[in-house]
Write a structure and sequence with these properties.
Elements lengths: L1 H28 L21 E10 L5 H8 L12 E3 L4 E4 L13 H7 L3 E11 L6 H8 L10 E4 L2 E4 L9 H11 L5 E9 L6 E8 L4 E6 L2 E6 L10 H8 L7 E4 L8 H6 L3 E5 L3 H13 L6 E4 L3 H18 L6 E4 L19 H8 L21 H7 L18 H31 L6 H21 L4
Helix pairs in contact: 12-13
Length: 473
């Protein structure tokens, strides 16, 4: 028993000495640190952070003009929260200097010392008491937490709410961490911690309030738009701000946006303000409620419809019918579909195989209605060896079923090479024809230009038609 007790005492003493060594090692690099006694604190005691330190001072003459001397001393003064480094009374002016920069008067550069001649009375030190208000949040947490645990640095600000994602090692100190962040971060009234993963159905995470008001209804602004919502009941990620802007920049006034998982409107609202027609949907009733509120708050009156339904139903019914309606009316502009559900958006793509019938695809979806399609003359032909050109070629809609060379049967392995050569020759012939046309055009006066251009265009069309007739379709 005696041996065990002695061993325990030795180990305890060793730990204390180690803590003292590490503390004084830190103090040597930074003379301004909170007292060692706060280490391991789990319930915030602000009075425990009071400590007395010796600070170098420079006593100025009472008639010194502060504005004249500030440029000289500003790099030496002590800068702490809630602390005035220049104290002026009717009798004296004292400047508090940073002890990490100045320990003796000679630490001030010679040029600056010369500039101070006639401005000061003496250099000395003075004891002052630094309190909780004078320490920065990071300094406080670093003093409280065990030395092997770094204070949490990452957080998100959403209106008056600060969101933390604390690691397991921080959880025993979560309450005091929340309180320090609340005290030291301007405009923050509530500090919350994410408890688990995002809810897969309604896309919000469970949170716990660590400090401050128990109010999670907040208002925030992003790129000129105002959003109000209950942060505990909806999904909002301020780190997606740049992604919101990037996608909105791709849209134009006559376009339409189908936002399948709209949330409270970070894509839908700015798109509507830009003049884009918006159909926005979210399954979460709370998101749907705040989406409508945000539409009103941002003064969006036209071209906006909100829906509260499953994403698949929204795609199969609302989006499909609107696309078909746009084809019937032959409206201009592009259609954009946004599916901002990173964890499972891909699972909703199973609707694609039977989203549109074959008849709808042929007559409406792949461009204009087939009855309105017109045959146009070939105006440019290129080989398809290039991957980029091949991608362009795949977008071309044509009625040609097969292109063969002069009726000769070609083996499959040589067909691509011969076809490419044939198309290349056709392209060169057409370029030559265009070059001749340009030379002929320059010889005529402006009065005859319109007639000449029409004639050349007709000749070019005839040449092209003749070339195509040489190919067996």
């Amino acid at each position: 028993m005696a041996v065990g007790k002695s061993l325990s005492t030795v180990v305890h003493s060793s730990c204390c000495l180690k803590n003292q060594y590490n503390f004084y090692k830190t103090a040597m690099t930074s003379l301004l640190v909170p007292p060692m006694s706060v280490r391991g604190m789990t319930c915030l005691d602000r009075d425990a952070f009071a400590t007395v330190v010796n600070i170098p001072i420079l006593k100025l003459k009472s008639n010194t003009i502060i504005s004249n001397i500030k440029p000289i001393i500003k790099k030496y003064i002590l800068k702490l929260p809630e602390f005035k480094p220049i104290h002026k009374t009717s009798d004296e002016v004292i400047v508090y200097l940073n002890p990490e920069i100045v320990t003796k008067f000679e630490d001030i550069t010679e040029n600056d010392r010369q500039s101070l001649v006639g401005q000061y009375e003496y250099f000395s030190t003075k004891s002052i008491t630094l309190k909780y208000e004078n320490w920065r949040g990071h300094e406080i947490l670093k003093a409280i937490l065990p030395e092997d645990i770094q204070p949490p640095a990452a957080y998100s600000l959403v209106g008056h709410i600060m969101q933390l994602n604390l690691r397991d090692i921080h959880l025993p100190y979560k309450t005091i961490i929340g309180q320090v962040f609340l005290d030291k971060t301007p405009n923050v009234q509530t500090v919350v911690n994410k408890v688990n993963a995002i809810d897969t159905t309604f896309r919000y995470f469970t949170m716990e309030i660590l400090a401050g008001e128990k109010n999670t209804v907040t208002t925030t602004k992003e790129h000129g738009c105002t959003y109000q919502f209950d942060f505990a009941r909806v999904y909002w990620n301020p780190r997606l701000s740049n992604e919101h802007t990037r996608l909105i920049a791709c849209m134009k006034k006559d376009d339409v946006l189908y936002d399948v998982f709209a949330g409270v409107g970070p894509f839908a609202v700015p798109a509507a303000r830009k003049g884009v027609k918006v159909l926005a949907n979210d399954l979460n009733p709370e998101s749907y409620k705040w989406l409508q509120i945000n539409v009103t708050a941002n003064k969006i009156k036209n071209n906006f419809k909100a829906f509260n339904m499953d994403g698949r139903d929204f795609l199969r019914n609302i989006v499909k019918n609107d696309i078909l309606s746009r084809r019937d009316r032959e409206l201009h502009g592009s259609e954009h579909i946004i599916m901002n559900l990173p964890s499972s958006a891909v699972e909703f793509l199973d609707i694609l195989p039977d989203w549109f019938t074959q008849d709808e695809l042929k007559k409406k979806i792949m461009g204009k209605k087939k009855s309105n399609q017109k045959n146009k003359n070939v105006f440019k032909v290129a080989t398809v060896r290039s991957i980029k050109l091949k991608a362009k070629a795949q977008k071309v809609v044509t009625n040609l079923k097969k292109l063969d060379a002069k009726g000769n049967k070609i083996a499959k392995k040589d067909k691509t090479v011969n076809m490419d050569q044939l198309l290349e020759d056709l392209r060169k012939d057409m370029q030559g024809s265009s070059s001749k046309a340009n030379t002929t055009q320059k010889k005529h006066t402006k009065a005859n230009k319109k007639r000449v251009v029409s004639k050349i265009a007709l000749e070019q069309t005839n040449e092209t038609a003749a070339m195509i007739e040489q190919m067996q379709l």
